[in-house]
Amino acid sequence: MHLLPHPPPLCFRQQKIFFCSLFFSLLYVFCALTAEGENNFEGIESKFSLRTPADPDEDVCYLVPGQVNSLAQCNFNHTSKTFVVIHGWTVTGMYESWVPKLVDALYKREPDSNVIVVDWLVRAQQHYPVSAAYTRLVGKDVATFIDWLEEEFNYPLNNLHLLGYSLGAHAAGIAGNLTKKKVNRITGLDPAGPTFEYADELTRLSPDDAQFVDVLHTYTRGSPDRSIGIQKPVGHIDIYPNGGGFQPGCNLGEALRLIAEKGFGDVDQLVKCSHERSIHLFIDSLLNEEKPSMAYRCNTKEAFEKGLCLSCRKNRCNNLGYKVNRVRTKRNTKMYLKTRAQMPYKVFHYQVKIHFFGKTNMTKTDQPFLISLYGTLDESENIAFTLPEVSSNKTFSFLIYTEVDIGDLLMLKLQWEKDTFFSWSDWWTPFTFDIQRIRVKSGETQKKVVFCSRDGTSRLGKGEEAAIFVKCSEQPINRKRGGTKKASKENSAHESA
């Protein structure tokens, strides 16, 4: 699903038609939800297609609530896990390309499972507010179907996992809220934002809808309720890859490359690239079991960008996706991570802390640096980062990440780049700092390494050659120096949040 910009102003007659249509659609939803009678299967419009590993993109067999023989005809496995996939809003009225990809990945990871795709395409291709209102009915359909499985066949709901994308995430939440017994798990894949950001918990995805609810937020740009993906946490664990606002590889340059390679047929992918990334991150977790992406608990994305939250103590880190560790807390847990632009998305996170010594007081803002890491397995050179501020005799912490597994760190290079624009102050005033040690912590291994200057102190000059630091022969005892002590306290505060 993706949301389009607001439509152009309608003439008065068109507005009357639109709002009348919206009113009667909402009235229909209300009447259907308040209809009496248990296990009334006649009002169900959603279809439940049991896909197969051989045909993950075809609806070849439907499970029909109330028709017991439909399960046998479709070879439903009563002893295996069941995944229920719920799509979102659609302009075309057709399934989007991610559906068979997710079905195929689920079967590759769990070959004996049942993968059911909920077809609510007719309701999902209406005006967005109408389709958003229909999530109540879709959720009711799914809940009725689940209750039927449990009551008629004694199917254990502990084997049931709902996966909903965008509007489908809220439909999954409503279904979980309406079932007579709790389903095992709901995964919300970038739940839709408009009309849901301030909605009541009963009408959207919430932690109470399943025994465990995990959520991926990948497109939360803009003001609340206008953001394509919901911004606030709505699960037990809410993960915000790359801060949740925008995903790597979804920029204009990548769009032009995709058009050059595949033509205009995939242009719609560009519009929903970040929104749909939530699905592909989950698919990645299914297919690359040996390379799980790690997320870290943090109060804010700003604190995460400083590298202050790379702790795994007391469940402060977790796997993204299928093998997430189920942690239920009294309040929502917000987690962050970086990813690559393409699958496999896993990267390796590092916190770097540097104390800049200077004989004179000096402060520079938005300074570009390059850092290179060398380890026992590989190396990653010229990682670009920008420090919002660099000041004399202060300690600064920041986050970097690599796309390769470097192994145990052995050496580090640091270079202070020239500004991209010409500055007379740089010409007449040489800016330099002295650095004795650089401290690095790995998020994935939790190892801490201290690098020392080979000369005792390295001079770092703006626009000059890189300074080289090697792993200290003996790890120094932590000194109670002001900057380091302050950074340590800041670390603890953000990790305990």
From TrEMBL:
The keyword Membrane applies. PANTHER family: LIPASE, LIPOPROTEIN LIPASE. Tyrosine nitration after lipopolysaccharide (LPS) challenge down-regulates the lipase activity. Gene3D superfamilies: alpha/beta hydrolase (3.40.50.1820), PLAT/LH2 domain (2.60.60.20). CDD domains: Pancreat_lipase_like, PLAT_LPL. It is found in: Cell membrane; Secreted; Secreted, Extracellular space, Extracellular matrix. NCBIfam families: lipo_lipase. Residues 478-497 are annotated as: Disordered. One of its GO terms (molecular function) is apolipoprotein binding. Residues 348-471 form the PLAT domain. One of its GO terms (biological process) is triglyceride catabolic process. Residues 1-37 form the signal peptide. Ca(2+) binds at residues 201, 204, 209. The lineage of its organism: Eukaryota, Metazoa, Chordata, Craniata, Vertebrata. Residues 487-497 have a biased composition (Basic and acidic residues). The keyword Lipoprotein does not apply. Homodimer. Interacts with APOC2; the interaction activates LPL activity in the presence of lipids. This is Lipoprotein lipase. The active site is at residues 166, 190, 275. Belongs to the AB hydrolase superfamily. Lipase family. Its EC number is 3.1.1.34. Its main location: membrane. Keywords: Calcium, Cell membrane, Chylomicron, Disulfide bond, Extracellular matrix, Glycoprotein, Heparin-binding, Hydrolase, Lipid degradation, Lipid metabolism, Membrane, Metal-binding, Nitration, Secreted, Signal, VLDL. It comes from the Eukaryota. Coiled coil: none annotated. It is a peripheral membrane protein. SMART domains: LH2.
